[in-house]
Amino acid sequence: MNKAICLKVAGLSKRFGGLAANNDIHFFVEEGEIVSVIGPNGAGKSTLFNCVTGFYKPDSGNVFFFGKDITRMRPDKVCNLGIARTFQIVEVISDMTVLENVTTGALLRYSRIKPAMEKAGEILTFTGLYEKRDFLGTELTIADKKRLEVSMALATQPRLLMLDESMAGLNKVELREIIELFRKIRNQGITLIIVEHVMEAVMQISDRVVVLNSGKKIMEGTPKEVCSDREVIQAYLGEKYCAILK
Amino acid sequence: MRNFTIRQIIAGVAILLLLIVFPLVVSQSFNVHVMILVFMFGMLGVAWNIMGGYAGMFSFGQAAFFGIGAYTSSYLLIAYGINPWIGLVAGGCAAAVVAAVIGYPCSNLRGHYFAIASIAFAEIVRIVFNNWQMVGAAEGLSLPMQNESFANFLFNSSKLPYYYIMLAFLLVSLAVSYFIATSKMGYYFRAIRESHKIAEVMGVNVVLYRLMAIMISAFLSAMAGTFYAQYILYIDPGSVMLLATSVQIVLISMLGGAGSIMGPVIGAAILIPASEYTRVALGYKGTGMDMLIYGLLITLISMYYPEGVWKLFSRLGRKLK
Amino acid sequence: MPDQLLQQLADGLLIGLMYSLVAIGLTLIWGVMNIVNFAHGEFLMLGMFTSFWLFTLFGIDPIFSIPICFVGMFVMGTLIYRFIVSKVMKGPVLAQLVVTFGVSIFISNLAVYFWTPDFRLLPATMLQGTWQIGGVDLSIPKVAASFGSVIASVSMFFFLKRTKTGKAILATEMDREAALLMGINTERINSLSFGIGAALVGVAGAFLSTYYYIYPQVGGLFGTIAFCVVALGGFGSIEGAFIAGILVGLAQTLGGFYFDPSYKYAIVFMIYLITIWIRPQGLLGW
Lengths: 246, 321, 286
Hints:
The structure holds three protein chains of three kinds. By secondary structure, chain A is an alpha/beta fold. Chain A has ten helices and ten strands. Chain A has one domain (33-54, 73-245): Rossmann fold, CATH 3.40.50.300. Chain A starts with a strand and ends with a helix. Chain B is mainly α. Chain B has a single domain (6-320), classed as ABC transporter involved in vitamin B12 uptake, BtuC, CATH 1.10.3470. Chain B has a two-stranded antiparallel ribbon. The radius of gyration of chain B is 19 Å and the shape is globular. Chain B starts with 5 loop residues before the first helix and ends with a helix. Chain C has a single domain (2-116, 140-278), classed as ABC transporter involved in vitamin B12 uptake, BtuC (Orthogonal Bundle).
């Protein structure tokens, strides 16, 4: 039953001026898990993502990916090792078609265009964007753009996928579809870490939840445990969602 | 991947044949000279386009690479009698090395910031050559008279060989540009142009790929520089390292369509004859009238055709379908 | 020897303050609009020629031309913004870069067309002569220009921090979208900033005309140095431009003194490149 530790964050701290955006954060994620990171705005979730993926250099602490120390590694190297991510504010290449966007991601594992494009086609079929492969990045709806970003991340063939608010601004139907997609991704053997505000979704799909507040980890546990924790409810959740869950 | 249609291939071959026949039919040597300049600036535009159009690094210092190419081959020839064809490669390598040295610290600069840095860099290079006694300082270098031959890269009696050599250079640079645009490098360049963040998140080594773009661009520009030296047989910082030349290269690419393969060549084909013939028609009075029109043209193009003629063509083409 | 060094320091300070004055307008335009005004040097040249002709034709001393230059260049700047620059603000970045190059070539060659490329100098004006203080020669027109530079920087600083319009400019500089939401007419702010930027460099031109050669291509060098000053000080920072101008002036004279005068501008550009390498946002930028 012993699963490999996919990601281990040990004592991670990051300060901006006087503000401790991340303060001594510890947690780990097992291979094949879906772990959500939640917390109010400014709790340090995006900073945590940026520190793990190399976009910020943490002041102290370490990050291990399958046992390998990746602290302060350049973002492209982190990606090369198998951690892909999306951004809170969607980033796609605006003058490329959907297929070209995903092909660019796939080129990390291929040196020629043709196989990369075939791989990109497969991924688009998987994420349900294949019909729109010839659209420009800018011509997509928000929901499709987020899906495209996930496709681009998948194209780099990660072992760990970190999604920063991929559900924000989606309607009910779109939400259900993207949750379905996340489950499918996990079933492919890819570990997922999600930053999310949409609590219904978090509680539905997470194996475990990490709660941040003011840069600190205040709680970690199964969705059920988190919901019954007074501090978490006070800090963030409110009574409503937990009532739904119970 | 984009493949050529039959129609495009036929059109390409036809244009090429036309260009090969052109100097045989048009006997006036000034017209041939203008065409040589079109090819040369076309090549400089293609080189700029690789870093500026594909990778989004707007260099306003291409004249430095052009000049380094011209100076390297000329100096090697004058001081050591080294064949200009070897000088061509040496000049390209020298420019690429300089490009790497200056490009590395500029890895984080984008847009306006990169543009200003490139101007500062090119000005430093110009000032250094202007004061460097070994390469003739402000007086520049005059190339020695030798027997005319292909091996010597020197032809006294006719412009024709220069015409065909430059045409060949242009085709080589277009081939390089095409190869880049349709390869992994081209995709990565376009990602970098969009944003460094998005490129990095897809595993692109931004610094490395930016350096590659700058170095390839510098190498090709330097080749054009060697050609210029062998063609004019005299170089000085005031003719091969001018900011005005750098700006002209950017303008050619923008007018034709930055980021498209053929754009810079189209830009050169429009702008070079326009500026050469207005200079002949108006410039001799020394009143700056030709430059006045040139400035106005730049302003109007950026206001009304910022995406270039190529975009216009392809938009028309799409409508016709 | 120490006298010579003092002289170099004084010269560097004086030319540096002139650079600051030229750069303040540029940094304002750059900061607010994120546009590089390559025609800035040509605005300077126009200021110089305005002062020159007012003196030559009407006998108006450059000191009294300063307000005329200010107003005249303000109008000119606003017009150029309205009819040219504003048209490319939403276009590709490359077009934004190139458009002011076009304007710059146009203006300088218009000057060549009307006034020939000759070098001119103003004869004795009210600002002339030198002060000798402890073995150091201070040229009076340069000292006057330096005072002008300090006054302009300080008043710009307070204009931006204390007045309603100034605060609107600063707000636009920080976040255009937010400023728009707050009901600030950003289009008006743009044209105002472009006007003020041009007006300030017009004033610089009037001062510079009292001791420097006046010719159509004079803007090229001053313009390029101004970019470096702005980048060094931090884009949009008035204080940064002020300090960076002085630093560049000192670097230039001391560099010329200790190494080789012909390399003095190369040294300036080198310092600029090193600075943006270590600190891309400039000395006082964020």
